Amino acid sequence: MVLLDSLNRHMLGAYGSAEFATPNLDRFADSSIVFDRHHTGSLPCMPARHDILVGALDFPWRPWGSIELWEDAITRSLRRAGVTSMLVSDHPHLFEVGGENYHTDFTAWEYLRGHENDPWKTVADSSWVGAPALPVEPPRVHYAYTESRTWFRDEADFPGPRTMRAAAEWVTANAGKHDRSFLFVDEFDPHEPFDTPEPWASMYQRDEDPRLIWPPYVVDGRAKGIVSDATARSLRAAYGAKLSMIDQWFGRLLDSIDASPTADRTAVIVCTDHGHYLGERDVWGKPGYPIHDPLGHIPLMIRWPSATPRRVSALTTSVDVHATLCDVFDVEPEHRTHGRSLVPLIEGRVDRVREHVLTGYWGREVQVVTDDHCYIRGSVGSGFPLSMWSNRWSTMPVHALPDLRLPRPDARARLDLMPGSDVPVIRQPFVEGDMLPFWAMGGLVDRNILYSREDSDQTQDLTLVEGHEELETRMIRILRDALTEISAPDDLFVRLGL
Predict the structure, then answer these.
(1) Which of 246, 255, 264, 284 stands 20 to 30 A from 375 (CA)?
(2) What is the CATH number of domain 2-346?
(3) Shortest CA distance to 144 belongs to which of 89, 195, 208, 85?
């Protein structure tokens, strides 16, 4: 399984785009089952990995965190079943508070240093002369990458290429050595910083535009004057350069898989955690904004031994990847999960595995996607009541802002039980004025949004159309039933007016 972080479906050739070159992902798609209606579950990065590796939706209960006491990653089940598992990654969040134990049950793991805010170097390389890392505008807050990038001597030293090369080397060295194996390549590219050496850096860049590798996280960036025409062009160009570069290195990994003596018995999954706004709807990054298709409608491609390459229009979501892996290796998780195996769909035995998809950020609006509609439900009256459920109290650390942290549980907390578990869990309520994780900021209040699937650009909000009430009532019922099915927290129903 290859997870490319922030991989924009609408910018891939396999999904109809010609904006950037992605020849190797397109080559892979030609021999794969391409899923056209795959959607996010929990956002952002670590919640999405929780969905994939643990198989349970994360966002109804907590904003960001590591594996809890009442659950296990699939790698624990694989270890018990005698399956060799390997993690190759440059994703910093996997090795810091809030994500630090996802790697521990892999048989082995390799961490390639230096991406984004990985605390790898404390000073810049004094011998650096400006190549291959080109001069760029600095970020608004300090990232460790500012020092780390000066230690890259050539393209192969950048974290993404190093990760893909290490994964390819593992495939070559381990081919035929294990009865059953699972390789997970968690590659942080094309996530920001959108930093590449030449010739990639100039591939889509205009000479007169600034060199930018750090996108702002802002709604209405052009309208507010934060993003200019030149800035907009530069950010998309830089993302495209990162995408094209990692596509080339993905091709080398694919070549090593194809050369393996077990290639005809190897399934290959290419997926992502979420997309990334690059000016669509005048939104940039992943700010507090409802999940529209550029962020939540994501790619999934699976090359499967003996399966005919084709396109599939069935609804799928991130927890279904976990269920598929469980099916492949014939393992059963001990905790409650929410996924549906894609194996019957892949093998052509069914034409759908689910009727709806739930997706969202903790503490914000909740979205349900069906075959025909997308309904985004905001909070009623305020963003409360709201609670966080966790025994591993954490959120995403921002190293440059050490005072930005989640307050510890207080006397308002009580013990509760997660659905399907008798392990006591701390349930901390929040009220207005409390410090909240920043992912909870900016949610919809007293507003809902409803789109038809036929509205591919999601420009016509049907809640503003006269006579929409019956359709919205039906979508409310579907959303309520979907949340009931997973035994979502009672305060979530209250907050959403359900």
Answers:
(1) 284
(2) 3.40.720.10
(3) 195
List the beta bridge partners of residue 368: 358, 375
Cα–Cα distance measured from residue 317 to residue 56, given in angstroms and rounded to the nearest whole number: 11
Which distant-in-sequence residues (6+ apart) come within 8 Å of 118 by Cβ? 90, 92, 95, 144, 145, 148, 159
Q: Could you report the per-residue pLDDT of 246-293, keeping only the tens digit for each? A: 999 999 999 999 999 999 999 999 999 999 999 999 999 999 999 999
Please enumerate in sequence order all residues whose Cβ is within 8 A of that of 451, keeping only pairs 6 or more positions apart, or say none.
373, 374, 375, 458, 460, 461, 462
Question: Please, what is the end-to-end C-alpha distance for the chain in angstroms?
Answer: 38
Domain extent listing, the chain: 2-346, 357-495
Residues with Cβ within 8 Å of 169's Cβ and at least 6 positions away in sequence, in order, are 256
Q: Is the pLDDT of residue 329 over 90?
A: yes
For 442-495, the pLDDT digits (tens) are 889 999 999 999 999 999 999 999 999 999 999 999 999 999 999 999 999 999
Distance CA 415, CA 441 (A): 26
pTM: 0.96
Written as six digits, the tokens of 359 are 């997706």
Residues 253, 258, 264, CA angle at the centre, nearest 5°? 135
Q: Which residue has tokens 């000066």? A: 150
Does residue 288 contact residue 219 with C-beta atoms inside 8 Å? yes
Distance in angstroms (rounded) separating the CA atoms of residues 288 and 442:
4
